[in-house]
Amino acid sequence: MTLTPHLTSDSAACCWIPLFALRCELARRPELASRPVALLAPDTARTPRVWQVAPLARRAGVKPGMTVSQAIGLCPALKLCEPDPVHYDEQFSQLAAALVTVSPVVEPVELGRVFVGTDGLEGLYGAPEGIVEAIKCGVRSAECGIESESPLINSAPHTPHSALRVGWGIGKFVSWVAATRAKPGEAVIVPVGGEAKFLASQRLAVLPLDPDTHRRLLQLGIKTLGALVALPEEAVVSQFGHAGRRLWRLAAGLVSEPVVGRVVPEPIVAALTFFTPVGERDLLAHALDKLVDRALGDPRRSGWQVQVVRVHAELEHGASWLAEATLKDPSATRERIVAPLKTQLERSPPAGAVERLVVEFTAFAPGTAELQLFARDAGAAARAGRRRALQSAAREIALRIRRPMLYHVIEVQPWSRLPERRYALIDYEP
Amino acid sequence: MNREQTRNAEAGTRNKTDRLLALNVPHRVEVELDANGLPIGMRDAGYEMSRSVETVGEVWRIDDEWWRRPISRRCVEVIFEGGGRVVLFEDLSTGEWWIQKPA
User: Fold this and answer.
1) Is the interface score ipTM higher than 0.85?
2) Parent domain of A402
3) Is A311 helix (H, G, I), strand (E, B) or coil?
4) Does B23 sit within 8 Å of A423, measured CB to CB?
């Protein structure tokens, strides 16, 4: 892991696949394509709410955010699907990986939306039209990869990537608005210098507005970005403050935020497969502690603090659960890393028993608060000495019998009536 | 990479084996019963060993995991001639007998 400067690009292509998660689900289960389908939100297990809605269900009045009873009341034939965020994430990673073959500057924003920096690609692909075509080709090749891997995904209209819309322009905002105006499988290109003209006819909703500002602008009779830009900038600032200035400049095409490519660090993964599915939250929290400990103990983590941690669970019957936390202050302390994950576990627990739990450190910040060279006190020195002795003994055992034979005894379900479910051995690596 | 491949990659190359090894897993045996259905002898084909039961202790029943694959066991605590306290249990769904260390 090395620090690499961020890659940036002023010209941007926005690749957008609306309803990405739902499309992934339909690609996996093509028999659902002709039915009114809705996907449940992954983070509201206690009061499940509708997250993404297929057109047939939308026509029946089902909308995102509705409770299950509201949705079923409006559309009795509605087929509700449990979300599988891990699968969607895998599919989105494939999409991002395919785009990396076109440009090294790729910035994923949310599921189904990713910006590609296109500065310097003219030499390879020519005009923006050529760049956009290269992007589509890259995505199509990823799509073919998915199709060949899964016999279930054999109808192109249902694959998520066939709904790809591409927008090209200078800066992320212009390219995003262009992508929202593109038809599925097509692209909208905003020529350099034509940003203001293109934006002027767009509706106000394309701006990143809070509902209150949106309502106030509509009440003032402002329905397009052109109407907003027609007002003096200072007048907008006096009404809406600093945010108003940013909105005005975005609408005028004066803000050009570059695409910032991220060097994807090699993640550190620790995983645990339960020999019997586990639903108890205490046990899951305990397993989280152990996994974070194991991941922290990975030598690649040395000298780095954890910034982003993800935990995903594979549930019984093929469902999954995913939680991610970005630490405001990067940390190498288990308690601080685990705390936000446990909060999410409490607030929206997995919808079923967990078969496998995986903790992944995906982003790091340099530096460490750990003891590196000198022990701070005698206790710490003694612990470090014991650890060194254990490591040495473990190495010797591994040399003699050529396979790891050191285990920890851990409690699995100590309250179980079945003795073989109570305790288990897990590899011990001092 | 499908989920299974991902799992193997994570388990194999990054974390070595991450599977839990259950402790006190029961072991299949053949049991000789008296007229009351209680064990009087036990033969362990795996270890080529036969033992006679000296004393029968507690008898209890476990019914669990009815929501998944129901588990139904009739457990008998026995002491073998010459020493050794174990739990023999009959899997009521298959009629097989198993041996396990007492908890």
Assistant:
1) no
2) 372-430
3) strand
4) yes
